[in-house]
Design goal:
Length: 147
Amino acid sequence: MLIFYHALASLLLLGLYPLLGNYTFLVMLSSILTDLDHLQLITQKRLYSTKRIKVFIKNYFKAYQKNEDAVQLFKGQIFLFHSIEFVALLAILSIFYKPLLFISFGCIFHILGDIIHHRMNGWPVLRWLSLSYGIMIYAEELRINHI
Ligand SMILES: [Zn+2]
């Protein structure tokens, strides 16, 4: 999902203000900034405009529909902030620093938006959702490419 839509969706989180107070803004901010993960992809593929990003996503969708190896487009990419492992780590560390819990809420909200968007388009989710699974698949690809 484009960051613009994440920013729009984050406005829904304002409904949490009576419950969370100013922490609501931390949840909103982290729900948007989770996409910092994509900076590596944007710089690597030189996707410096919304148009180029949309073309990249469209190509990914076409490749996936044709059962081609669409994941090659994301080869070598690690989406740390989008991973279950990162969110779990934040939640655990929030025992020592409470704001991390609200940052993890924002990440979860962001990830749910991305999951819905991916499922609506029929795109795979597990590779980016689980850091360990993504690394395992990437390692397998490296092994296959070196044989
Ligand atoms: Zn995202």
